Amino acid sequence: MTLYTSHRVRILAALVLSLSIAASVSAGFCKITPPGKRLPTEQTYSEAAASWWTWALSQPATKNPITDLTGEHCAEGQPASDIWYLAGTNSPDPVKRKCTVPRSRTLLFPVLNVISPWIPDSPTDIATEADVESLRANARGISDATDLKLTIDGVKVNNLKRFYEESALIKVALPADNIFGAGEGKSIDPGADAGYYVAVSGLSPGKHTIAWSGRSETLRFSQDITYVITVR
Description:
The protein is an alpha+beta fold. The chain is 19% helix and 33% strand. The longest helix has 19 residues, at 7-25.
């Protein structure tokens, strides 16, 4: 680890980092919410990640945006205003999707993420504090992620490891046809997430390309996603 003892060097380093973020989004006249800051929706990244999973897991498997290979289901279950979720994938193969997004939405998506769920067998099957910590520990396996990449309209966003977060605990009722195959009447209570989320706001009307990828050797998981987005 390098320690900067010069005040001037520290200022220069901060300036370079700020310019790097600003330059990375200039092509689309958009803004990336920095780590540790609240999204335009007033959520933290931790809260937004939990909301992302609630959205994603509430959609039936036959129309779930996570398993969607073309983008035809990108609008399933989206909130009425403010935010628009872009899905990851459970496939290691490259996925290219098309999606039309209403203007003035903040886009939230995981460059790489994972959920460690507790699916109770009965109402009395309640997770203990030790169980919750075990869920957290399992999800933290993704902290070894490598090859994290994100481009917006062809411009690279740097230092994505800074966007690591651990979500607020997740509680969601699963549809009968859910991607876990858990059966009717099941729920996640709780679930623990970890991952690298990015929130983008202010994309101008028209077409934009957002592409991201990454891998975790610990979880033996990777994803490579390209969205061609039309903002209107």
